[in-house]
Amino acid sequence: MDLYLPIAELPINVFVLLGMGAAVGFLSGMFGVGGGFLLTPLLIFSGISPAVAVATVSSQIVASSASGTLAYVRKKAVDVKLGAYLMVSGVTGSALGVMVYTALRRQGQLDLVISLCYVGFLGTIGVLMLTEALRSMAAQRGGRTVPTRRPATRGFVANLPLKVRFHRSRLYISVFPVLALGVAIGFLGALLGIGGGFIMVPALIYLLRVPTTIVIGTTLMQTLGSMSFATVMQASTNQTVDVVLGLCLMVGGVVGAQFGAQVGQRLRGETLRALLGLLVLSVGLRFAVDLVATPSELYSVNPIVGGAR
């Protein structure tokens, strides 16, 4: 059954949209990521313009992140204080990201920037996560002891002022790296239509030394706040949020996130990182291929969507 999308200006099968939302929602709950790094490319590959895909996916990320956050709150696997700091700084980053998004769209460079950013970020982070996870799995199978990562207490970060104690995560660190991380993730989320979890999760684990059991729920909390703000900004500033498309993705995403959260609690940390690394790397490779492959139509007219001038 085809459904016409008023902002995207094309018909698409409603069951395909529900399936996309459910699959990405499952991954959101399982890995602690908003899922936009996968859903945005899927929509673009389906023929929806990058401008509409990026803005609309933000609304789906809000729904799936809210559902996943509730699931982890019930399991007491969320550092609310740390999540609040990340959320406030993430809103600031989202505001900056929407401003850059609008400027690039007016210059006609948004599509190219989105593709290049996906190739660079996804390729790099996918390789790093997969390499580390495979090394950890190989060490365990060989009977070697994997060293426990302790909170960072030395170096530049340890000497920064304004330290805050996060009891749930057993951390006592400066607020500056926490705020910087939130701003960066919020900026990328608004610009690329991603929740930023594929960056936030390894950053919290390897840079701030947050326990793996707390990372996923806390990341979902930050994603919920920053992407809610980004969705409102995109709708009011660029008018590129397709409500019909967003609702279909939300319905599937909310259901999928609940099942994903249950599965994520049962898998080992290194297994989760390996699977996530493979997903991130595969999407980045697909974008790289599309950048160098000869398109089926050498010339096309791509009108500005949403009445931007």
UniProtKB/TrEMBL annotation:
Keyword GTP-binding on entry: no
Signal peptide: none
Membrane topology: Multi-pass membrane protein
Subcellular locations according to the entry: Cell membrane; Membrane
Cellular component GO terms held in the UniProt record: plasma membrane
Keyword Coiled coil: no
Stored Pfam families: TauE
Keywords: Cell membrane, Membrane, Transmembrane, Transmembrane helix
Spans traversing the lipid bilayer: 12-39, 85-104, 110-131, 171-192, 198-220, 241-259
Family: Belongs to the 4-toluene sulfonate uptake permease (TSUP) (TC 2.A.102) family.
Name under which the protein is recorded: Probable membrane transporter protein
